[in-house]
Amino acid sequence: MTKTKGAALTRRLLGTIVTLGVTGAALAQGGAPNAAPDFAQDVPSRDATGLNLPANLQIFGKLDPNIRKATAIVNEAVITGTDVDQRVNFIAAANGAKLNDEERERLRLQVLRQLIDETLQIQQAKVADITVTKGEIDQAYAGVARNLQKTPAVLTTWLREEGSSDRSLRRQIEGELAWNRYLRKRVEPFVNVGDEEVKAILDRLEAAKGTEEYHLNEIYLAATPDRQQQVFESTKQLIAEIGKGQAPFAYFARNFSEASTRGVGGDLGWVRSAQLPGPLAETAQTMQVGQVAGPVATPGGFSILYLVDKRQVLMADPRDARLSLKQLTIKFPAGTTQAQATARTSAFAGAIQKLQGCGSVEKVAASLNAEVVDNDAIRIRDLPPPLQAIMVKLQVGQATPPFGSPTEGVRTLVMCGRDEAQGGQLPGAQQIQNQLEQQRVNLRAQQALRDLRRDAVIDYR
Q1: Which of 232, 415, 418, 444 has the most CB atoms around its CB within 10 Å?
Q2: Counting beta carbons within 10 angstroms of the beta carbon of residue 2, is it exposed (0 to 12), middle (13 to 18) or buried (19 or more)?
Q3: C-alpha to C-alpha distance for 367 and 35, rounded to whole angstroms
């Protein structure tokens, strides 16, 4: 059975920490404000502070800065408003997201539920005599720092500057480590996959050879009959936000989806149309790679789909060909006018058309003062979709049209070699078994968490 390794855990931690894995619940902070006091008779006096503090000031109420108002109490464990705000601030900063008031409030509600789940997971792990040491948390914290291209010390400073804290991040790391360890101890040993099940899947794959399948991500929003129009409008607003391109689709899926796949960024994996509900299947068949579609009316709500990729089962895909490429790039110094940039780009395009295979690249680059970068093992599939369509048709020695921008440089790709894609092969029996086991572990984990929520004593404040 596949176990969670350190590096993989760190990558998953970064994903869940940065973009969340759970949705939220609304709550209000009670307490009406006191009547506003009349300050009309306060006479400012000059003092050493220069603040013009009133001489007859009164303190209204009692404030202890060390006491934080609770947002929720989970089996006597306190989750404060500060805990929620620090997690929200980290999510927004790590994703480079600029949240308006409505988005921030919606994210706060989702973060609250995540913190509740996190608290329940840590508590359940302790009941099972599972502990996470400070050294293990430090190691994972350092891994998150590396993924954010920071040192642990710089990460700590950055978190505080963004209105978060290392304590908040370490808490989520502890929850992730504790829950994974709990699953390995109490769930994984009781998950079994028989040889007949594996063989049945391999037989179905063989029978489906040539069938088109889709790699889809989904956001699902539930809608009761009385909320159909409201949720429909919310889904349209969410699609508009996704279209701005300020954050990846997975960010919105983790934060807003109400499906069980929210923890993995809404990733449905590779599916065939026959495996999807009718409306989703029809939509997927009309989509292009990289497209977002919706709202799609589905049983109980609405879905948003993102087509990551598509292929034919067990068939060779031209986009799996591996290429040997040379990239030429010209850059524009600061102060370059639009006319100058256009003229230089035109000269670049003309020189590209005269290329005589990869052997002439360096000579042409020198005449254009262009940079050359080699890459001998890149799949067409790994290129942006517009370039994929070009590279599939390109022959060895030919170059793409110029592409890029004045700020990042204009470039071209020259194909120097091509290893064609081989026909698809059935996955190994062990690979199928591992995938089935992991799916069942995930399903039981969701069931266990639902049981914990049902039995928990949660006091919202």
Answers
A1: 415
A2: middle
A3: 78
Tokens read off for 178: 């504790």
Model confidence pLDDT, tens digit, residues 301-310: 999 999 998 8
Token digits of residue 191: 């998950």
Question: What pLDDT, on the 0 to 100 scale, is given for residue 116?
Answer: 92
- List, in sequence order, every residue forming a beta bridge with 403; answer none if it has no partner: 411
Residue 175: which of 263, 115, 88 has the closest Cα? 115
pLDDT digits (tens, 9 = 90+) for 236-257: 999 998 988 878 898 889 888 8
Sequence-ordered list of residues with C-beta below 8 angstroms from that of 344, at least 6 positions apart, any chain: 330, 332, 336
* H or E segment and range at residue 230: helix 228-243
Answer for the pair 247, 95: CB distance below 8 angstroms, yes or no.
Answer: yes
Backbone CA torsion sign across 348, 351, 356, 359: negative
Q: How many CB atoms lie within 10 A of CB 275?
A: 12
Say what percent of the chain tops pLDDT 70: 84
The structure tokens 């990729």 sit at 309
For the stretch 140-152, pLDDT in tens is 999 999 988 899 9
Q: What are phi and psi of 244, to 5 degrees?
A: -70, -20
Upstream peptide bond of 384 is cis (omega within 30 degrees of 0): no
Strand order in the sheet with 409-419: 371-379, 322-330, 409-419, 403-405
How far is 262 from 82, CA to CA, in rounded Å? 25
Which distant-in-sequence residues (6+ apart) come within 8 Å of 259 by Cβ? 218, 219, 220, 266
CA atoms within 13 A on the CB side of 130: 21
Residue 210: pLDDT band with limits 50, 70, 90: confident
Within 10 angstroms of residue 461's Cβ, the number of other Cβ atoms is: 16
| Sequence-separated (6 or more) residues with CB below 8 Å from residue 361 | 326, 328, 355, 372, 414
Position 72 scores a pLDDT of 84
Q: What is the mean pLDDT of residues 188-196?
A: 89
Query: CA-CA-CA-CA torsion for 291, 295, 296, 298, nearest 10 degrees?
Result: 140
Burial tier of 64 (Cβ tally within 10 Å: 0-12, 13-18, 19+): exposed
* Crossing angle for the helix pair 249-256 and 101-127, to the nearest 10 degrees: 70
